[in-house]
Design brief:
Layout (H helix, E strand, L loop, with lengths): L2 E12 L1 H10 L6 E8 L6 E8 L11 E10 L14 E2 L5 E7 L4 H10 L11 H18 L5 H13 L5 E7 L4 E6 L5 E4 L4 E4 L11 E4 L4 E6 L2 E6 L5 E2 L4 E2 L4 H4 L7 H7 L1 H11 L1 H13 L3 E5 L1 H18 L4 E4 L15 E6 L5 H12 L3 E6 L5 H5 L2 E4 L12 H17 L3 H18 L2 H14 L4 E6 L3 H16 L2 E6 L16 E5 L6 H12 L4 E6 L8 E4 L7 H19 L18
Helix pairs in contact: 3-4, 7-12, 7-13, 8-12, 9-12, 9-15, 12-13, 13-17, 14-17, 15-17
The structure holds fructose -6-phosphate.
The site of fructose -6-phosphate has 14 residues, from α9 and α15.
Length: 602
């Protein structure tokens, strides 16, 4: 899940550029950070390393310039959160520095062998092993060829070292003597970039904005050698040279900036109406093609994790209701225990913002092994899932930088709603209802609604528990609302299907227990309101999110009535409430503890 970044240039660039890139990548993990760069000295160059546990401080002492540097922001897996375990890691000669994203699954036996042969380890991480493996491979390659420091030898050594490790990994290697970087990966993402100032490599294209004009998503079967003269690509198995197909980097600085908002979370919540408009403008044809694939399939599965998993669940309700079609919504990490039904006529639709979630990738790979067709609703278009899928619908949500997913969630719902209507032969109805949803979202974001949400946040700021109920289309909304609240406020929030209350949950309700109730004007209204009344009569404090007031509500947050698009609108006040609570509790809304945005490890 970590973020990695590096550059090499013909001239000296500010090392602070790496730190800035790490700030952009911090959403991938923020347990520790570190940088390494070449320091030219009259007595000989050396590698300076600076690393520490904790988040990047807002201000750092001035950093020098250098022709080559790399950096890392960590989500800890093996080895505690300490300065020593922060990356970069060096080999014994301190001429190789590595940064790593992933887990070396066979690290134990490798470390034992390396220690037996005299390597000295400075950390408890699996990552450091790669620096020492590479040191050995490089020495072997140089002895065998009797040539020293040829660029291809470095590639050869990286290929050999990489072949010895197991797992899903991405590395950037800095080789001081040849002043070159090497990038290599298996599943975990790496993007190369070329700009006027030099060559760059990053876990995510967003960190290349402002540096690169052209980018290339490195493939698993490739190794990239980055030198001041430019990048070269090699086949990871044979070592044969390869020709990359560069593409233009279309992201602009405005896409990744805060744009006047104090946090990315609130910026991205506010972007939602614009994203749905973009979907209506740009993704209609994709929705039609996806509908055709579904039409042809015999068995459709939606897979996703967390918020994307709730979008999948909501999709199954939308398909049942609008398209009269059964689809299976499966949590991606559980898919391998349910894949036995798959045939070559099945269609598996992966829902994922990042396109790098390892459980989703595994589900997609399982589907492909069984000959099923794979489609993806994915936000990051160069991602692994986008490349594995037979057909992709881009979410068009723009970079989602807060760790919490918001705009990618409603983008998935909008596309699924459109597809359901297309399957039903009522595309124009789908388009109309999405326009109503856009208006409804704008109303939910207006100051009048915000004032009510802020008042609720004041009331709940010290709450320990919170319950959320909905039925039908609003059941996935209840789950998603509870997830938003718990992950950013650390309040224990639980989402339930309203009908489940009396089957156990109501035992938790006591005087003052806050309960959010989603009650759109659909067929669920009478039953969800009677559930709300039952909670109220046991002392529960009821916040009703609904187009109409009701006697069951202590507080009413009015929202627009938008028919079947209600899940796109009702979630907005819950997203805002989660944000307002986080701010009031003094928490960082963009970087909740223990989380990272791209879950690239199991
Ligand atoms: C919650 C959240 C996560 C992600 C999940 C899947 O706010 O962001 O639950 O939705 O990790 O991520 P993607 O969509 O990138 O596969």
């Amino acid at each position: 899940m970590c973020g990695i970044f590096g550059f090499v240039s013909r001239r000296e660039l500010p090392v602070a550029l790496v730190v800035d890139a790490l700030r952009t990548l911090e959403y991938r993990g923020y347990d520790s950070w570190g940088i390494a760069y070449e320091v030219p000295e009259s007595v000989g160059t050396y590698l300076a390393v600076f690393k520490q546990a904790g988040r990047l401080p807002p201000k750092l002492p001035p950093l020098p310039t250098s022709p080559i540097a790399l950096g890392h922001t960590r989500w800890a897996t093996h080895g505690g959160v300490t300065d020593e375990n922060a990356h970069p890691h060096l080999d014994c000669t301190a001429t190789l520095a590595i940064v790593h994203n992933g887990i070396i699954e066979n690290y134990r036996p490798l470390r034992e062998t390396l220690e037996r042969t005299g390597h000295h380890f400075r950390s408890d991480t699996d990552s450091e092993i790669f620096a020492h493996l590479l040191e050995d491979s490089l020495e072997r390659a140089m002895t065998e060829s009797r040539l020293s420091e040829s660029p291809d030898l470095l590639v050869e050594a990286v290929r050999q070292a990489f072949a010895q490790i197991r797992g899903l990994n991405a590395f950037i290697v800095l080789h001081l003597p040849s002043r070159q970087l090497v990038a290599v990966k298996s599943t975990s993402p790496l993007v190369l970039g070329i700009g006027t100032d030099g060559v760059f490599v990053s876990s995510d294209a967003v960190a290349l904005v402002g540096h690169a004009d052209r980018i290339y998503y490195l493939r698993d079967d490739e190794v990239a050698l980055l030198s001041p003269d430019g990048p070269r690509l090699f086949d990871r198995c044979t070592g044969e040279p390869r020709q990359p197909q560069w593409e233009l980097l279309t992201l602009r600085p405005a896409d990744t900036s805060l744009g006047g908002f104090p946090h990315y979370l609130i910026k991205e919540i506010h972007e939602q109406p614009r994203v749905i408009k973009r979907i209506l403008r740009e993704r209609l044809e994709d929705a039609r093609q996806l509908a055709e694939l579904i039409q042809r399939s015999y068995g459709t599965f939606f897979v996703g994790c967390g918020t994307a998993g709730y979008a999948a669940l909501c999709g199954s309700y939308l398909f049942s209701r609008i398209a009269r079609r059964h689809v299976n919504a499966v949590i991606a990490s559980e898919f391998k225990y349910q894949e036995h039904f798959l045939t070559d006529r099945s269609l598996v639709i992966a829902l994922t913002q990042s396109g790098e979630t390892v459980d989703v990738i595994e589900a997609v790979q399982a589907a492909k092994r069984r000959g099923a067709t794979v489609a993806a609703l994915v936000n990051v278009t160069g991602s692994t899932v986008a490349r594995l899928a037979d057909f992709t619908v881009p979410l068009s949500a723009g970079p989602e930088q807060s760790v919490l997913s918001t705009k990618a969630y409603t983008a998935k719902l909008a596309i699924l709603l459109l597809v359901a209507h297309i399957l039903n032969g009522s595309e124009h109805v789908g388009i109309d209802v999405l326009w109503r949803a856009i208006d409804g979202m704008e109303q939910a974001l207006a100051p009048a609604t915000l004032d009510r949400i802020r008042a609720v946040a004041e009331h709940l700021v010290d709450a320990e528990h919170c319950y959320v109920i909905g039925r039908g289309l609003s059941y996935p909304t209840a789950l998603e609302a509870a997830l938003k609240i718990k992950e950013v406020t650390y309040i224990h929030a639980e989402g339930f299907a309203g009908g489940e209350l009396k089957h156990g949950v109501i035992a938790l309700i006591q005087d003052g227990s806050p309960c959010l109730v989603f009650s759109p004007l659909d067929e669920t209204r009478p039953d969800i309101l009677s559930g709300a009344m039952e909670v109220r009569s046991r002392g529960g404090w009821i916040i009703g999110i609904s187009p109409e007031p009701d006697e069951a509500f202590h507080v009413h947050i009015p929202i627009a009535d938008v028919g079947d698009a209600s899940p796109l609108v009702t979630i907005v006040p819950a997203q805002l409430l989660a944000y307002e609570l986080a701010v009031r509790r003094g928490l960082d809304p963009d970087k909740p503890r223990n989380l990272a945005k791209s879950v690239t490890v199991k």
